[in-house]
Amino acid sequence: MGDFRHRLKTPIAGLALVTSGLLAVSCSTGTGTGTAAPGASGGGSSAPAIPAPEIKISPVKGASKVRPDKSVVVTASNGELQEVTVQAGGRSVKGEFDSGHTKWTSKAPLKPSSNYTVSAKASGDGGPAEASSSFTTLKPSEELRIRDITPNRKGETVGVGMPIMVTFNHAVGDKKAVEESLEVTAQKPVAGAWRWINDALAIYRPAKYWPAHQKVKFVARLEGVRAGKDMYGVKNYATTMKIGAAWVSSVNTRTHQMVVRKDGKVIQKMAISAGKATSREYTTTNGVHLTMERGNPVTMISPGKKEGDPGYYKEIVNHAVRISNSGEYVHSAPWSVGSQGRANVSHGCVNARPDQARWFYDNFHRGDVVTIVGTNRALEWNNGWGFWQLSFKQWKKGSALKA
């Protein structure tokens, strides 16, 4: 019996060694942390592996000719996004995470003809994860740019009636998309709206005159905006205009008087002579005019007539301030001093004695208001800067944004 017991112990001990080896192998096939999953029995069964987060990026890696108006989207499964960076030329693209931090979406158009890199980090129970990608945006067949912004003169102060006029280098197909990229902010905010005058010109006007003594900023975030078939904005723009005092001049062609107010206070009264009204051409226009430009001197020639024709004239006038595109100015007229304050004898302009015309010339700003009453010819809203001839309700009908 003793020999039997001794021999029996040896195989049992060997069996124990084999079992121990199996347990060691079982532990090595788990998560890699060396920790068994909760609830695992001591009998040696293993928990399934917890997958690491999976990150997906769109546009796909290596994509070319990506539309600039396409969003960059980064998603994570089996975890949460911790960080997303999208860059081109050292500039980062803004974006937002969803409420669960499993999705990130860019919030601004991309720049055309640019190389973008994307990097993302995520974390989850299965550990951290990282991903990166790159793609290239397309080169548009037509590049939309702004050819001119008025006003945009360095150091210029403008009047309370001044519009913002934006001229593009191409006819805009998708006016809504482009208009949505245009932003006007004022230190003293007022309602306003854009109106498309034609396919390449948009003009912004407030509902009422700008509050005086403030700055107004215009920004065009055109970069990446799809403006039409194969046309994208390629550059952003920004400018600031300074609104000065409220200069408002009131002209009455019947009493032959002009009264100039600054911030509501009368600072000048001028005897004037207006258009003699023997024809429509020689009739001063009624309505709200804006001062546009000035010249000293300005040569005025009868429109549509040549020398020798009846009614032909060619006159050189000093200190002339334009108020329409149909040839109307406020200007000096020493030859009409005897009629100023008494009769209308001009070809349609508002003229005054030399010293007062020079004073007006020296003090005007582009966008100051000149309101004229007393005639039977209305200023057309698109004659010069006659935009205030439209009510704000009428003006807004020219916007591409119907809301």
From TrEMBL:
Q: Does the keyword Signal apply?
A: yes
- Per UniProt, residues of the L,D-TPase catalytic domain are 247-373
Pfam annotation, one family: Big_10
Active site positions, chain numbering:
331 (proton donor/acceptor), 349 (nucleophile)
Say yes or no: keyword Cell wall biogenesis/degradation present: yes
Q: What keywords is this UniProt entry annotated with?
A: Acyltransferase, Cell shape, Cell wall biogenesis/degradation, Peptidoglycan synthesis, Signal, Transferase
Give the range the annotation lists for the signal sequence: 1-24
Region named Disordered: 92-137
| Pathway as given in its UniProt record | Cell wall biogenesis; peptidoglycan biosynthesis
Q: What is this protein called?
A: Ig-like domain-containing protein
Q: Which organism is it from?
A: Sphaerisporangium corydalis
